Amino acid sequence: MSKDSTFLLIGTLAAQANTTKDTVRHYDELGLLKSRKRQAGSRLYTEFHPECIERIELIKSAQAIGFTLIEIKDSLNDYYDGNLDLDEQLILTEQKLEQVKKQQANINLMVELLAQRIATLEQMKSDDGLNNKKDFRTSTLP
User: Full-prediction pTM beyond 0.85?
Assistant: First the structure.
C-alpha cells in the first residue's frame, strides 16, 4: 500500500485538533473518526483522514452543549454522509434542550437548598458563640 501523505498520524491529528492522543483513540474506537490501518514493517499504524480535525471540533462542540458521544455518533456520520434528517435533528435537539432545562432547574434547587443550609449553619454558629461567651457582668472575680 502506498503512503498517502494526506492522512495524518495520531500525534499530528491530536496536535492540530488541540486534543490528546487518548481522546483521538477513544473517538476512533467509537467510530466517530475516519481512519485506516497501515502496515510499516512489523508495526501497524492508524492514520486519520484530515477531515477528522473538523470532526473533533464538532464532537467537542456537541459535547459542550450536552450531547453524549453515542448521541453524536449517528448525527455526525449522517452529516458527513449527506443523510442528515433535519426534522429528526430538530426533535433530538428540542429533547436535549428540555433535558438541560430540567438539569438547570435541579441545579437551581440545589443552590437554593445549599444557601439555606449555609445560613442555618452560620446562625447556629452565631447562637452557639453567644451561649459560650462568659458574661463578665455577672461573674465574680476569683
Answer: no
Position of cell 476569683?
A: 142
Residue 105 CA to residue 128 CA, distance in Å, equals 34
Find the angle CA(76)-CA(79)-CA(85) to the nearest 5 degrees.
Answer: 110
Nearest-angstrom CA–CA distance, 57 and 72: 12
Q: Indicate the Cα dihedral angle 56, 62, 64, 70, nearest 10°.
A: -90
**Cell digits for 5?**
501523505
DSSP 8-state assignment for residue 30: T
Q: Name the residue among 1, 65, 73 with its Cα closest to residue 34.
A: 73
Whether the Cβ atoms of residue 36 and residue 52 lie closer than 8 Å to each other: no
82-138 pLDDT, tens per residue? 787 888 888 888 998 999 899 999 999 999 999 999 999 999 988 876 665 555 455
Residue type at position 62:
A
Burial of 5 (0-12, 13-18, 19+ CB in 10 A): exposed
**Cα 93 to the center of its chain, rounded Å:** 17
- Residue 117 carries which side chain, given as an amino acid letter? R
